[in-house]
Amino acid sequence: MGAKAYAVLSTHCARCHQVGSAQPGTSAGGIANILALSEIARDPALVQRGLPDASPLYTTLLRRAMPPDSRREAGAPAMPNADEIQAIRDWITDLGAHPAGACPVRSSPGPARIGEVIYRVVARLPAAVARRTRFVSLTHLRADCADETEMAQYRRAATELIKSLSPGATDVRLLPIDPEEMVLQFDLEHVGWSQADWEQFVADYPYAPFYTGAAMATARTLTGSNAPVVRADWLANGWMARTGADQRAAAAARLFGLPLVEALARQYAKPAGAGRAAAELGLSVDEFLKRLADAPARWEAVAQKVRYRVVPRRELLELQALASGLDPEGLAQAGPAGSSADRPLSLSIWPSKTSYRVGDLATFRAHANRDCHLTLVGIDKDGQATVLFPNEFEPDNLIKGGQVRDIPGADALYQFRVEHRGRETLIGACLVGGRLADGIAQDFERQRFTTLGNWRAFLYRSLAEEAARTAVKPEEPKRGRRRVRVRSAPKPEPRVPAENHARTAVTYDVQ
Ligand code: HEC
User: Is the pLDDT score of 227 beyond 90?
Assistant: First the structure.
């Protein structure tokens, strides 16, 4: 299983997503290790184990987003074919049977606990030294799958970064203050920074309000800083954002670990899922999701999305604020920038409950950030697929951007009743400038709800048929006087560009 997937990734993807491959590989889109299967298998931004339809590594292929056509050099291999795409699907499905390969769950001290740890240090320092003492913390990075080697690299990156804050500084020492060396202490004077320099740098540290408690309040007073401790990945990201390319090049000469600093910064900038979000707060994933269960309507869609997928950092910050009893509105301003208009098309779907009993009525909800045409497909425990939406009762499948849509709608003349025990999957696809995803054709005179047979086989056929259509193009003579008449076959819906096609999947249990 893994061998086939490896072959596909190596043929079609490595030239842009593998650093240090035989070819001059790169790290397009921040994916630098596509051939390290065990690593990508535990990256929730690429793979949801056992759920290919929710795994960007696979859905990117269904959307025909990769490899990007425009960047393909002549002679380079074309799009992966239906068999190759199926190999990726099967590999991800198979991973679901091996949860052992997933990340070990590690607990991480939350900001309040870190506040206590630094308080104990600053309380013992002479007042003047306390005012110059600052900390960087790496604890949350460890909870998110990083092994000891990676942690050592992050620690080194943080150390080098602090050393390089001031080019002239030579005598910078970072002192671990905990047994696991996850919180590092340093002296502003050694990096040549004033307290005011530091306050300016941390003015927009969005996680400052998360450090609560009496110990932290005293630590703030003793250090004279609103943010005496910051996360190392935020620090790296902020440094990258504030440092121009020239300055970075100059720093690269000093910092032998610039790629490490960049990797650390990516930890902050990249979208993340519930596991990371919870670790950053020192919560278990279950506790984090429980605290989001009654999220206000405005955040319902993203609170549901994070159960299954990674979300952009700004949205993550809003959810973390909600889970911590803070006001998400004010905080979001401080998150990484990006207006909603230039955010990519995104779709969330979720069942009204995470589990049902046989005989219950189910409602599904969908939310997209732009107007698009929604297809919802239900897959039963045996892999059989039925198009739940659109259907004869609700044939118009255009949903409004920014609004939650219930399916069935409030006045719809049909219901979904769950009939069998087991785990079911709900697939959603939303198209801008197209109506139905995956080459689905509907005939309501024959069926009120279109059945597609086995979902895996259906997708395979749909991809193979599309490839057959696009491969052979009859050549029409251009210059001849007589027009050659080509009988036109019924035209299938043209495929929409990848950026106009969002898709996802969720599962729920029936007991
Ligand atoms: C010609 C270079 C190139 C090739 C080949 C390529 N990619 Fe990409 N990929 C990119 C670039 C550039 C980005 C980031 C920008 C973007 O999303 O277009 C990216 C982004 C991605 C993303 C993140 C997309 C997202 O929506 O966040 C995934 C997943 C991905 N690629 C998977 C693959 C897979 C799987 C293959 C092989 C079938 C592949 N890529 C082949 C250049 C490439």
Answer: yes
* Spatial CA neighbour of 106 closest among 7, 180, 167, 23: 180
Give the torsion sign (CA, 40, 332, 105, 424). Answer: negative
What is the C-alpha to C-alpha distance for residues 62 and 428, in angstroms, rounded to an integer?
Answer: 12
Token pair, residue 300, equals 């319902």
Contacts of residue 466, Cβ cutoff 8 Å, sequence gap at least 6:
439, 492, 495
Residue type, 171: D
- What whole-number distance in Å separates Cα of residue 506 and Cα of residue 366? 11
pLDDT band for position 45 (cuts 50, 70, 90): confident
User: Which residue's alpha carbon is nearest to atom 19 within ligand 1?
Assistant: 29
CA 311 to each of CA 22, 57, 70, 206, 301: distance values in angstroms, whole numbers, following the listed order: 33, 15, 27, 17, 11
Please tell me if the CB atom of residue 507 comes closer than 6 angstroms to any atom of ligand 1: no
- Please check whether residue 444 is in contact with residue 66, taking contact to mean a CB–CB distance below 8 angstroms: no
Ligand 1 contacts CB of residue 57 (under 6 A): yes
Whether ligand 1 lies within 6 angstroms of the CB of 60 is answered as yes
Give the C-alpha distances (Å, rounded to integers) separating 256 from 94, 234, 241, 248, 352. Answer: 40, 20, 19, 12, 52
Average pLDDT score over residue span 58-77: 75
User: Above pLDDT 70, what percent of the chain?
Assistant: 84
* Mean pLDDT computed over 477-505: 68
